[in-house]
Amino acid sequence: MIASARASLITLIAAPTAWAAHFLTSYVIAATACAKTMADARVFTGAAWPDLTPARIAIGVATLAALGVIALSTRQALGHWRDGDAEPPYDDATRDDRQQFLGYATLLLCGLSAVGVVFVALPAVFIGDCR
Amino acid sequence: MAIGAGVVWCLVLGVAVYATRIRPDPHEEAVGWRLILWGGVVFPTVVLAALLVFGLGLMPQLREPGEGLRIDVSGEQFWWRVTYRPADGPAVVSANEIRVPVGERVEFGLTSPDVIHAFWIPALGGKVDMIPGRENRLVLKAEKPGTYRGACTEFCGASHALMAFDVVAIEKAAFSAWLAAQATPPSPPEGEAARGRELFLRHGCGACHRVAGTEAAGEVGPDLTRFGARATLGAATLANTPDNIARFVRETGALKPRAKMPAYPNLPGEELAAIAAYLGSLK
Amino acid sequence: MTDAALSSAQDDPELRKAQEERLTRTWETPKGVRYWSAVNNSEVGLWYTGTSFAFFLFAGVLGLMIRTQLAVPGNDFLSATFYNQVFTLHGTAMMFLFAVPIFEAVAILILPEMLGARDLPFPRLSSFGYWCFLIGGVFVCGSIFFNAAPDGGWFMYPPLSTDHKQTGIGADVWLLGLSFIEVASIAAAVELIVGTLKCRPPGMRINLMPLYAWYVLVVAAMILFAFPPLIAGDILFEMERMFDWPFFDPARGGDPLLWQHLFWIFGHPEVYIVFLPAIALLAMIVPTFAQRPILGYSWIVLAAVGTGFLSFGLWVHHMFTTGLPSISLAFFSAASEAVAIPTGVQIFVFLATLLAGRVVYSVPMLFAIGALGIFVFGGLTGVMVALAPFDWQAHDTYFVVAHLHYTLVGGMFFPLIAGVYYFYPFVKDRKLSDRLGKWGFWLMFIGFNVTFLPMHVTGLRGMPRRVFTYAEGLGFDALNMVSTVGAFVFAAGVLVVTWDVLRPKGKEPYAPRNPWNAGTLEWLSENPGKEWGVRTVPIVSTRYPLWQQPNFVRDYDEGRFYLPDAEEGQRETLITSVLDARPVQCLRVPGNSFMPMGAAVLTGGAFIAATFYAWTLTILFSIAALAAIVTWLWRGTAVIPEKAEKDVGLGLKLPLYVSGPDSVGWWAMFITMIGDMSAFASLIFGYFFYWTIHASGFPGGPGAGPGLVWPGLAMALGAAAWGAMLAARRANAADRPQALRLLLVFAVALAAASAAALLWGPHASGLDPKSHVYPATVWIIAIWTAVHLGVGVIMTLYCLARSLGGRLTAAYDIDIHNVALFWHFALVTLGVTVATLALFPLAVR
Fold it and tell me: Which of C4, C133, C754, C779 is most buried, judged by most C-beta within 10 A?
């Protein structure tokens, strides 16, 4: 996918897919950690809240991985964007315009996805236990 | 937040009206691009990030543990079972009214045996659901003495609208004294109230309701041990007056649709009056 | 493309006249009773739009009843129990019978002509979807006249709604009626995705697609991932209601929260499924009235795709008060803030386009600006409730009621009405009244704000939602009265617009062609309109061909592009490639038929019978529905044409029959199976959800699960069936019909044995689904997979019959390609099932 020279609908959604995977991974890591470390998640015990440090580290790693994928998608999209000599707004019925349009749209999605990944990683910075 | 939102709204609508009505002629495309970049991308990203950081920073401190007093509240169709669990001393059971000490972070343990309810005292803080099979907790602090209203906010059936409660915040010392006094049952009634007690027991009210110090020990419905001390009845549906008590017993379902308590339409008026007098005397 | 290159054969006016007559005859809408057998997108789209708007009016009346009841404290206009039916049905009908279907309705109505296509690829499927929607909708709404409407709120939380003592048949009406409609929605989504990807006119590369088509693509894809979780939830829910399987009963290990997860995994994307198509209408309207191309086409694509993804990360923000750990809530809070970014980008692209254009003011623009005003307000309160600490106050109060109405009315209803005023001349040949439009707008705009603005305060003062009454003196009285007055003003505005749409206009002149001077293909349509949809499938080389391609309209009218004729009297449209819209096939689309209606009636019968727990009737209806669908497929799909190729004009010859990934049927199967997999994934999510909440794992020792032997055997047999199917496809390609048939028989036998072994596992180990949620989950996943194997058996038998009937040959092999594709997915389903049920318990022991 990353090596593809031809921009497509699949390369377009690579970055948001990485966002979705990161989101799901972060949520599952944290939710499972809390559910499994509380003796029985559903009954109040009065004990201290379980600590989340390992889960936070895992989320950090997942964040770096997701940003890595987005960076790769960005690099590829830059390639697509520069592949040809079309001018914005890429509205001609040519291969170059199609390719560069997809590259440009992919770049925008990479930006949004990167912001999304950072937003979703912030909870792990601010919240340290299962309260 | 509200002011910021108002400013943003005015700016967006201002641009829209300007572009369509005030100066519909074309502007440079560059103006449009700047608008998209700064208005559509940079500004929202920065503001939303700031808001998010603010909100996330707030979250842990809103769930700090309490300071010792724990009150278990169980939401049931359509009333509240309240159990005080002081750090020292025995548990005290009550219903439909919660007393809290002023200035102390009180921890609520929230459960439900039937359907999902939600526990909310708007003046004191956020709400938390009461979900069968789970126990949630909520920590609240009343800053000032007074009576606050709480309500069920998760739709729970026919009488969802009629499931409220009063929260009475009193000074710490008064609260401790009040809680200690709950350990001894109220003194036996006299006169009409005594006859009311007899009727109360004879008609089998004790099968569902508990009145400490009598043989009424039912746990299906609200505990009535200190019923007379509450300002309202029927989970904050009516003011606690003898007439309303009689009405509630006579036409329960009409006042509170699908409540579990059966209505007693055939009780003679004077018997109802006696029962009302008895319940009102339980302070 | 120069004029000279375009077909000079079209110079002859006589020839053109003859062509037009043939096209008219071919695409003629039947008269009399047979009118209802029409399947063409313009008829089905119109019925669909009208029906969903009728449901909107019905739900609106329910809304007025709510407001009347709440006008004064302690009102007794409605009883508590009836009020609960009224508000439940108000929400249900607005969401499931209006907001989502109207997207499909409008898309079916306008998308083909926007893409220069004569119809969508599966007109009979659209028709089937419409009849399902009508039957299901009438069934759900009609229940209130028998005092049997659902009364648990539109999100039907268990245990309130699973308990027979609390809720009557209304809950079953909701679950089955809506499941039926959801199936129709998914069918429409499949149709629209294939339509957008494969039915574009030659030359319309992906960078030239109208923005509306981008939105349709994104929204239809979202439906594929959002609706199936709800269907999975519905299955669990009905299993609990009908057979007492304890999925949501905490006493037996279940958990009411799983429903909330599944419901909102559907429910939040659904908000965007409702919102994006309406914004898509604005994306067409704004450039037209700015009289220039959109400024920031790529940015809209970014926003549509980005919103599509981010909207799946918001669902728990409906569950902020369920007591989940803060960190879990925080992820959803973060995503809920992030989604505001692409939403904002769209609005600023519109503003920038207006700034850069010469704006023509009009009624559609009035509604568009009104929409902006309301929606931006709703979006800003949305940013607030996305913060968990704020939501803990606002959740389940009238603040949220106000917020959701601001987003939906501003984000969906006002743009829709803008679209009605904009597209009315396209659909009904005449313009609507400017005067009535302005009256309608101001009544609605003022009425709406008077109704819902005070509700923010009502909610923050402590009024919970879904209350049938409230006590006097709590600060709610005056605010509620104002809201009620506003609601009636709003309703008056709706009435004005409805009257404008419905009033007879026979004497008014037709609107001029392209009355708004728009740039996109649908405005090629003439007034009065022609039933053929498009005169000729044009060659497109710009985003706004009517503005940017010289002589375009004349060449189009003279039929100088593709398919100017219907020589064989068959309904035809062009199929092109996904990215670059190169022509690949001349598709014959099926004509009018009562079969889709019949199949819908029988399918509806099965669902309705199940509501009454009438099992014999359910089974009879199911068999009849299956027979009807098979007959429909047999007679109407993969028809072998009388010749291999056809001259579609301009010297281009295209095949009439293609199979495999080139064919629209293969794409439809592929896309359907994606939806199917997301329902399956939701069931698997349920399994692991239950595993997570049982801190000590599932109950019972090693022997408690279905074991290894039977699931392992099922896997082996299923893999063999899959292998036999692939070998059968190869045998067919090699033109060896005997080998093909033998292999198909093998595949059937192996698949049936696999399904039996899969079900035997939990049976042999004595798993009782009523005893605990663990066996119930094992059973439901095993049954799901066995049913898929069963469907595979039926499909394989169908291929066998087609081969015996001479309709499946080496050259004409659509059926076997599509069935083999199904088998790939069935194998994945089986593999995941066996891994989850048999291997996972070993791994975590």
Answer: C133
Give how far B112 is from chain A: nearest CA, Å: 12
B47-85 per-position pLDDT tens digit: 999 999 999 999 988 888 888 899 999 999 999 999 999
pLDDT digit string, tens, across residues C393-429:
999 999 999 999 999 999 999 999 999 999 999 999 9
Three-state DSSP string of C688-725: HHHHHHCCCCCCCCHHHCCCCHHHHHHHHHHHHHHHHH
Residue of C nearest to B257 (CA): C80
What are C527-572's pLDDT values in tens digits?
888 888 899 999 999 999 999 999 999 999 999 999 999 999 999 9
* CATH no., domain C292-505: 1.20.210.10
What residue of C is the nearest CA neighbor of A15?
Answer: C306
Percent of chain B residues past pLDDT 70, beyond the cut: 100
- Find the distance separating the first CA and the last CA of chain B, reported in whole Å: 46
Domain with A53, as residue range(s), is 9-126
Q: Which of C299, C305, C331 to mutate to test the interface with A (most CBs of A within 10 A)?
A: C331
Distance CA C822, CA C639 (A): 20
Which residues numbered 50-89 in B keep a CB inside 8 Å of some CB on C?
51-52, 54-56, 58-60, 62-63
User: 3-state SS of C151-196?
Assistant: CCCCCCCCCCCCCCCCCCCHHHHHHHHHHHHHHHHHHHHHHHHHHH
Checking phi first, is residue C803 left (phi over 0); if not, alpha (psi -120 to 50) or beta?
A: alpha
Question: Which of C397, C215, C219 has its CA nearest to residue C312?
Answer: C219
Chain C: nearest CA to B171, how far in angstroms?
Answer: 25
Q: What distance in Å separates the CA atoms of residue B70 and residue B136, rounded to the nearest whole number?
A: 12
- Residue C521 CA from chain centroid, whole number: 24
CATH superfamily of B192-281: Cupredoxins -  blue copper proteins (2.60.40.420)
What is the location of CATH 2.60.40.420 in chain B? 70-181, 192-281
A23 with C331: Cβ contact below 8 A: yes
* CA distance linking residue B92 with residue B181, whole number of Å: 10
CATH H-level, domain C685-844: superfamily: Cytochrome c oxidase, subunit III, four-helix bundle (1.20.120.80)
CA dist B5 and C71 (Å) reads 29
C293 to A91: CB separation less than 8 angstroms, yes or no = yes
Q: Chains A and C: how many Cβ contacts under 8 Å?
A: 138
Chain B residues within an 8 Å CB radius of C86: none
Contact state of C302 with A105 under an 8 Å Cβ cutoff: yes
Exposed/middle/buried for residue C770 (C-beta within 10 Å: 0-12, 13-18, 19+): middle
Tell me if chain A has a CB within 8 Å of the CB of C333. yes
Which residues of chain C lie closer than 8 angstroms to B236, CB-CB? 471
DSSP states of C585-609: EEEE-----SHHHHHHHHHHHHHHH
DSSP of C112-123: HHHTT-SS-S-H
Phi/psi zone of residue C471: left (φ > 0), alpha (ψ -120 to 50 degrees), beta?
beta
Between CA C412 and CA C52 the distance in angstroms is: 14
Specify whether the backbone of B105 is left (phi greater than 0), alpha (psi in -120 to 50) or beta. Answer: beta
